[in-house]
Design goal:
- The complex is a heterodimer of chains A (408) and B (90).
- With 408 residues, chain A is an alpha+beta fold.
- Helices cover 12% and strands 26% of the residues of chain A.
- Chain A has a 5-stranded mixed β-sheet with strand order 3-2-4-6-5, with helices on one face.
- In chain A, helix 1 crosses helix 2.
- The longest helix of chain A has 16 residues.
- Chain B has 90 residues and is an all-alpha fold.
- In chain B, 38% of the residues lie in helices and 2% in strands.
- Classes of the chains: A alpha+beta (408), B mainly alpha (90).
- At the A-B interface, strand 1, strand 5, helix 2, helix 3 and helix 5 of A face helix 3 and strand 1 of B.
- Strand 1 of chain A pairs antiparallel with strand 1 of chain B, so a sheet runs across the interface.
């Protein structure tokens, strides 16, 4: 933990929510209750108490809470959705001391189980830590880590980590230990269920082993079962929650449960999805025509694919199965003769990759399990530092802990 | 060797490190440039704080971490006597 060097001299602090989120479905009552619980989290470990002030009260509260956007007349302008989420000012004598601002362009949520949006309670606990005098911590379980870690569970039951307690108690001492001193915790309404709750369990994006990965119009799609995630060129996932395959790809037959490969065709921008020994052609999100056999692309009857990608240097499409690959000339609309060939052309590539994709900068990525092998643009030799874990770089997953060596 | 970061990534990285306190803010009156060693050390401190491998390079993992959602406040609050960072003994 880290201490800012300032702290409140008094033990009862007042607070008020001055403005509420405009673009969040959370009602004002829920926002106030979440703030109450976030403050109580610090209170129960230190003996600090917090009193809500109402708008009619002319006094200025110690902790004034606002939902603001972009430049809002302090040194920390917000930056739209993503990026910076919130900030708070350390204790002091200035009028802004203790004030806490949340970026109103975030989608603030409560009780979301699927990682959608930004959990207001988790961020509020963090910011109130600053309002009480704590800086950022590097402890892995600390709420004062600077990066958003996702929801922290039920606000009525959440307790600080040891690191956070120690930092707080350095400033304000420990809470009195009697059975009757636990502050009253307001009940919270149950979170509203997300719309169209899935009946299927949602896969874990951090477990890797994707069925297919494709660069489609600059975005990287990660397919797993009947779900997929989208990674924008900015490096941000559209959502931690995957989208449903059949709701997005209109016309994809319901019996297609897994996409084994996917790629975007350069000559006309069509998107091809592969499953079994067939493929489907989409214009944007709409299916065009019926399923087609892989034999059209030069593969033997009944053969399936592990990976398909289009290589920008020659405009050809490569279809990989196991340790072999075929090549298709999209421009001439015919398979190239003399195939299949051995995948060893791609020096360092894994056998039977989950998929292969080409990035916006022209590098080729072979993906397998939780790792990728990168081939710089124009090269058929993997980078020496391959493979690398893809979760932290692409999917907002924690870095893997030191363990067995990564696959060769 | 790991691939060189793009100029855009270097710019983003330096801005990020300055914003969150790992590098001092630039001074328009000073002719002295920021040394590569200073940048490398700042990256290492950031990596240590974020529990990343301490390569001293703006590698892909470091850049991905810099793109994560976070609090606006700096991580390094300044040397001027106001920071007391304590580490628990193992």
């Amino acid at each position: 933990y880290a201490l800012s060097g300032s702290m409140w001299k008094k033990r009862t602090l007042t607070w008020r929510v001055q403005s509420f989120p405009q673009s969040s479905p959370l009602k004002q009552e829920v926002v106030r209750t979440i703030m109450h619980h976030a403050l109580t989290t610090w209170g129960i470990e230190s003996g600090l108490t917090f009193e809500e002030m109402y708008s009619q009260d002319p006094r200025e509260p110690d902790i004034l809470i606002d939902f603001a956007r972009a430049y809002h007349q302090d040194s920390y302008p917000f930056d739209g959705q993503g990026g910076t989420l919130a900030h708070a000012f350390f204790p002091g004598e200035h009028s802004i001391s203790g004030d806490t601002h949340f970026d109103d362009e975030e989608i603030w949520t409560y009780g979301s189980k699927d990682g959608e949006g930004t959990d207001l309670f988790a961020v509020a606990v963090h910011e109130f830590g600053h309002a009480l005098g704590l800086g950022h911590s590097s402890a892995p379980d600390s709420i004062m880590r600077p990066f958003y870690q996702g929801p922290v569970g039920n606000p009525t039951k959440y307790r600080l980590s040891q690191d956070d307690r120690e930092g707080l108690q350095q400033l304000y001492g420990k809470a009195p230990q009697t059975p009757h001193d636990e502050p009253t915790r307001k009940p919270l309404p149950p979170p509203s269920p997300p719309p169209n709750s899935p009946s299927l369990p949602v896969p874990d994006r951090c477990a890797g082993n994707f069925d297919a990965i494709a660069n489609i119009r600059g975005e990287t799609f990660f397919f797993k079962g009947p779900w997929f995630w989208r990674l924008q060129p900015s490096g941000q996932l559209v959502s931690h929650r995957p989208a449903r395959l059949h709701r997005f790809w209109e016309g994809l037959p319901a019996q297609v449960k897994v996409i084994q490969a996917a790629y975007s065709r350069h000559r006309d921008g069509r998107i091809l999805l592969f499953s079994g020994s067939q493929f489907w052609v989409f214009q944007d999100r709409q299916l065009e025509g019926a399923a087609r056999p892989l034999a059209e692309l030069g593969l033997p009857q009944g053969e399936e694919v592990d990976a398909v990608f289009s290589w920008p240097l020659n405009g050809k499409t490569y279809l990989v199965r196991g340790q072999r690959y075929w090549r298709y000339d999209d421009a001439a609309a015919r398979p190239d003769p003399g195939y299949p060939r051995d995948l060893s052309l791609w020096e360092g590539a894994p056998q039977a990759p989950d998929d292969v994709t080409v990035s916006n900068t022209g590098d080729t990525y072979f993906v397998k399990g939780t790792h990728y092998w990168r081939f710089p643009k124009g090269s058929v030799k993997a980078e020496p530092d391959s493979p690398q874990p893809m979760g932290p770089q692409w999917l907002d997953c924690p870095a893997p802990s030191a363990g067995p060596r990564s696959p060769k | 060797r790991a691939p060189e970061p793009s100029p855009q990534d270097v710019s983003l990285g330096v801005d990020w490190l300055t914003r969150y306190g790992y590098l001092p803010p630039p001074h328009p009156a000073q002719a002295q440039l920021q040394s590569p060693a200073m940048l490398r050390d700042a990256i290492k401190v950031m990596q240590r704080f974020a529990q990343l491998p301490e390569t001293g390079l703006l590698d892909s993992l470091t850049m991905a971490t810099m793109r994560k959602r976070r609090c606006s406040l700096p991580d390094v609050l300044g040397v001027a006597g106001l920071v007391r960072r304590r580490r628990r003994r193992r």
